Amino acid sequence: MQIDVRPVRRLRESAAVRAVFPPVLEALAASAADLAGLRVVGDWIQYKANFRDPVMARPVLAPGLPDGEADSWEIAVDLRRCAAEGADVSGAMAAALAEAAPQAGGRDGAPSPAGDGRVWLEPWVPGSASLAWGFNALFWQALADWEKASGREYEQSLPGGETAARDTAAARDLILGLFKTWDELQARRALPEELYVLELGVGNGGQARTFLDEFLALDRRHGRGYYRRLHYLMGDYSPHVLDRARQAVGQHGERVSGLVLEATRLSGSVGFLAGKAFLVYISNVYDNLPTDEVAAIRGRDYLVQVRSYLPPGAAAAIAERFGMPPADLAPLIQRLLRIGPELLSESLPERFGDTGQAVLFWQAAWQALRQAERYVPLEGLDTYQVTPSVTGEILRPLLTAEGDVRMHVSNGTLASFADTLPLLHPFGRVVCHDLFTTAAGEYHNGFFGPGKYDGSVVNWVNGPLLALLASRRGFDVQFSPFTQRPGTHIKTLTAQVRD
Fold first, then answer.
1. For the chain, which terminus, N or C, has the lower number of CB atoms within 10 Å?
2. For 315-349, b where at least 16 C-beta lie within 10 A, e where not — what string?
3. Do 85 and 198 share a domain, yes or no?
4. 7 contacts 445 by C-beta, under 8 angstroms
5. Are 12 and 109 in a shared domain?
6. What angle (nearest 5°) sits at the alpha carbon of residue 456, between those of residues 453 and 460?
7. Residue 486 — pLDDT band, cuts 50, 70, 90?
């Protein structure tokens, strides 16, 4: 049996965390599960809203067996919730270990015996294909309805109550860097007439307004007339967010264009920028894009599959609140994700009197949403498609260097990043503020998502994987602290053509 405690600092600093282990060990000793093949993983899940139970069983499926029999199990323990006063660690461990016992596991790696009251919402799928990302997409598509029901703008749910990058000094540094590059090109008569800047993920438009106000003021002092040549493009997935951002930069209207776009497929929307963008500015976008997870366990590579469900108590409460049998929840949630709350209320007026009632159903389902997990063997990394143009072979240097490890693949981010790099002018750069791991070894020491922000998903981004992709395409990537907010987990990625 292997026990892996990732939040070592928490273990050393917290007597409550250390107190979790006696009942864990007692439950293990009393269990009928095969302890020789069992792994126990302790994480500190810092996101109070997340997709995991405090203790959960994960089957590790056997390779080469089409029916997916589990040949070992992993018990995952959230030390934060298990250390809370009143937590029933013994009971939760006993339930999880019962799933891992030979008589309960089943040949399909099912996470629990049939009829346990869970309402299953999807089959087993890779993480990036999970229904959770359908909820995430709906949040941005119907954001105005969500904000109306919750009574607050989405930025208020973020740490600190705002997005990460809205600082005049930082904007000034970016602009002066652009001016220096443009002056040098102008001196060589190599500066294009049109000067393009692209921002992805515009929030409420505060960053764009700060940048443009400072750009205009500096350009007046600089005297080069760059402002009249500037084309500032704002791109966002949410029309509601983009409309709000347009209003924020109204005084710069002639210099600004707004684009509704999908961050993982930029070439179709902004392909005309290829080789022209001097700056692509991104803030808090990558941590909100779909991702798989992979793991190396005892020398073999696995893909993490998930299956979304509503816990028994929550499912019963939602069904009673909205006057339906629990069996109706799964098809109704699927319908909500397909057509949105407004059309759902119009199609079922007897159940949802108006859009607001449908949004309340949406919020209740999202709050209750959980995911079971299992490990499925990968026959070969080259058979796993990370993006349409990148195979899992790119993961090999990271997985082989770290022993037993589990990490994000950041599929959506890699697709977006790969589409962004060709947009850069040879003297252009990408500047991105987000939640990045910067060394593969970090995954041994902490939990990096998924978690929930209000109605959306948050995951840290696999920074070493981005750097590896960029290097293979002739770009350098650097990570630095986000100086505008000391103490934050956010880091700044800078990418530019290799010298």
1. C
2. beebbeebeeebeebbebbeebbeebbeebbeebe
3. no
4. yes
5. yes
6. 70
7. confident
Whether residue 43 is contained in a domain is answered as yes
How far is Cα of residue 70 from the mean position of the Cα atoms in its chain?
A: 28
In a shared domain, residues 263 and 212: yes
Per the structure, the complete domain to which residue 46 belongs is given by 1-114
Contact present, 150 and 363 (Cβ < 8 Å): yes
- 400 and 272 share a domain? yes
Please say whether the beta carbons of 23 and 93 come within 8 A: yes
Cα–Cα dist 450/3, whole Å: 22
Give the whole-angstrom CA distance, residue 71 versus residue 220.
Answer: 69
Give me the number of domains the chain comprises: 2
Give yes or no for residue 100 having a pLDDT over 70.
yes
Q: Is 382 helix (H, G, I), strand (E, B) or coil?
A: helix
Q: How far apart are CA 441 and CA 406, in angstroms?
A: 10
Please report whether residue 423 resides in a domain: yes
Name the strand (E) or helix (H) holding 99: helix 89-100
Q: 3-class DSSP state for residue 111? A: coil
Closest CA to 491 of 456, 467, 457: 467
Token reading at 296? 């190396």
Mark whether 266 and 403 lie in a shared domain.
yes
Q: Do residues 91 and 64 make contact, with C-beta atoms less than 8 angstroms apart?
A: no
- Domain membership flag for residue 174: yes
Contact 57, 73 (CB under 8 A): yes
Please, are residues 198 and 235 in contact by the beta-carbon 8 Å criterion? yes
Q: Are residues 167 and 278 in the same domain?
A: yes
Which of 54, 15, 46 is CA-nearest to residue 447? Answer: 46
Whole-angstrom Cα distance, residue 285 to residue 164? 11
Per-residue pLDDT band for 423 (boundaries 50, 70, 90) equals very high
Stated pTM of the model = 0.93
DSSP letter at 259 equals E
